[in-house]
Design a protein that fits this description.
Number of helices: 17
Bound molecules: adenosine-5'-triphosphate, magnesium ion
Radius of gyration: 23 Å
Number of strands: 13
Oligomer: single chain
InterPro entries: SelO
Order of helices and strands: EEEHHHEEEEEEHEEHHHEEHHHHHHHHHH
Pfam families: SelO
Helix content: 40-55%
Enzyme class: transferase
EC number: 2.7.7.-, 2.7.7.108
Function: Nucleotidyltransferase involved in the post-translational modification of proteins. It can catalyze the addition of adenosine monophosphate (AMP) or uridine monophosphate (UMP) to a protein, resulting in modifications known as AMPylation and UMPylation.
Largest sheet: 7 strands, antiparallel
Length: about 475
């Protein structure tokens, strides 16, 4: 595979050329063997551990790398900030098979750039471990996500509220284009640049649209971005993931999960769940994520207006139905997903009322989202579990059973189908925190590796799985997350 930086073709204005700032004593802390193999970069495969630590701390340059910090803007909690950008990240380049630009490789925590504002350009080890573990868990769960190739400790201290060990995390992504990348140029009235970005994104993510021209091309691009967000957020809802900071600068145009700063998992089912300390209004609460994704898509749509028609009103007439179509598309995808979690093949109009009632029962009783669906899946093979669930859930259980009786399959087939949608284990908040604390205290990645071994197989019960299935004593009532700076 070739390694180069296709983003450079866009020209100045899209980025700042910037080398990572070297760190004192880089040591490889976590390494993603599987991902490294799939990237298939000779210089990486041939490198030993200390050479990898050099490459993925920013101390040495990977052959072909041309580090840059990308410009982007973003709506943060609804307020527009015209100037954000990679303040602590360096995009090294992308892996390519020689035809189409492929996966991006980016260092995060690799030092200051022109976009750092008051920040130190660094990342603490805790958030780096969280990003690595959470993104691996999401990938294994089948959720579209950016991944991590490495965490390298720097031997330096970063100062937040307290002194913390520093790290550089290497992220691998379909691209680092965000809704905020488009907003950056639209806010400056640089629509040629918005168009260039679109064309680049089409080449990279939606090559099927390459032959379209003019308005049709950009409308199709928007529709494709809508489709990706529908799938993404539906998958988050399936596994109980709360992103925590769905600002437009954290919304990747590729439809991958990006930025694991204040993310968390829901335990007890409630659409109102919020864990992020800065999300005081609950804007990014679990059940509001689908609406926010549409709001973010509307911000993307606005940047495309001049590309669609010289007359803004006519452009808006063409664009609006595409953004509005998200609602129906999401509803359809969402209720099918919930139906499948409950073992139905698909969701009819009548089923929605039944399923809504089912979720309401979970909420009213404060039942654990993951464990309840795991137990419902296992209830087909165990009379004891079935009777436990029947008494926990109450009268709705029989309504569910009656509905399942209309499916033509046997119980075992239904259970098999449910298992595809219902994991046995997720990266629960209290385990994630404990693993991070243990890694930092011991200076060893062992706790993270043990956790990862289970999370990489989230639909199977391994001997070690049980240790990670328990719900926290306080039901996460006092749990808070913080933006991972
Ligand atoms: N320690 C830091 N030094 C400099 N800039 C920072 C620092 N932390 C965050 N920023 C910048 O603040 C903005 C918002 O940060 P946010 O936490 O959303 O992103 P991030 O976690 O740094 O990166 P990403 O979204 O790429 O995962 C971004 O422009 C980011 O580069
Ligand atoms: Mg961010």
């Amino acid at each position: 595979m070739e390694f180069q930086n296709s983003y450079l073709d866009l020209g100045e204005g899209f980025y700042q050329t910037a080398d990572p700032e070297p760190v004192r004593s880089p040591e490889l802390f976590l390494w993603n063997h599987g991902l490294a193999q799939s990237l298939n970069i000779a210089a990486v495969n041939d490198a030993g551990e200390s050479a990898r630590a050099q490459f993925f701390s920013g101390n040495a340059k990977l052959p072909g790398a041309r580090p840059i910090a990308l410009a982007y803007a973003g709506h943060q909690f609804g307020h527009f900030n015209p100037q954000l950008g990679d303040g602590r990240a360096h995009l090294l380049g992308d892996v390519s098979d020689g035809t189409c630009p492929g996966q991006d490789i980016q260092l995060k925590g690799s030092g200051k750039t022109a976009f750092s504002r008051g920040g130190d350009g660094r990342c603490a080890l805790g958030p780096a471990i969280r990003e690595f573990v959470m993104s691996e868990a999401m990938a294994a769960l089948g959720v579209p996500t950016t991944r991590c190739l490495a965490v390298v400790t720097t031997g330096e201290t970063v100062y937040r509220e307290t002194p913390l060990p520093g790290a550089v995390v290497t992220r691998v992504a379909a691209s680092h284009l965000r809704v905020g990348s488009f907003e950056y140029f639209a806010a400056r009235n640089q629509y040629d640049s918005v168009q260039k970005l679109c064309d680049y994104a089409i080449r990279k993510h939606y090559p099927g649209l390459n032959d379209l021209e003019g308005a049709e091309r950009y409308l199709a691009f928007l529709a494709a971005a809508v489709e990706k967000q529908v799938r993404l957020v539906c998958e988050w809802m399936r596994v109980g993931f709360i992103h925590g900071v769905m600002n437009t600068d954290n919304t990747a145009i590729s439809g991958e999960t990006i930025d694991f700063g204040p993310c968390a998992m829901i335990g007890a089912y409630s659409p109102n769940t919020v864990f992020s300390s800065i999300d005081t209004q609950g804007r990014y609460r679990f059940g509001h994520q689908p609406n926010i994704a549409q709001w973010n898509l509307a911000r993307l749509a606005e940047t495309l207006i001049p590309l669609v028609d010289d007359d803004a009103n006519r452009a808006i007439e063409k664009i609006t139905p595409i953004v509005m179509a998200y609602t129906d598309q999401f509803q359809k995808a969402y209720w099918n997903m919930i139906a499948q979690k409950y073992g139905l093949r698909e969701c009819t109009e009548d089923d929605i009322a039944l399923l809504t009632e089912g979720l309401d029962v979970l909420k009213a009783k404060g039942m654990d989202y993951t464990n309840t669906f795991d137990l419902l899946t296992r209830s087909f093979e165990s009379v004891a579990i079935a009777s436990e669930m029947k008494s926990e859930i109450g009268p709705w259980y029989m309504k569910w059973q009656d509905r399942l009786a209309q499916e033509t399959d046997e119980g075992a087939q239904i259970a098999e189908r449910m298992r595809k949608h219902n994991p046995v284990v997720i990266p629960r908040n209290h385990h994630m925190e404990q693993v991070i604390a243990e890694c930092i205290e011991s200076g060893s990645p062992e706790a993270a590796l043990r956790f990862l071994a289970v999370l990489r197989d989230p639909y199977q019960v391994l001997p070690e799985t049980k240790a990670y299935q328990d719900i926290p004593g306080d039901g996460d009532r006092y749990y808070q997350t913080f933006c991972g700076t």
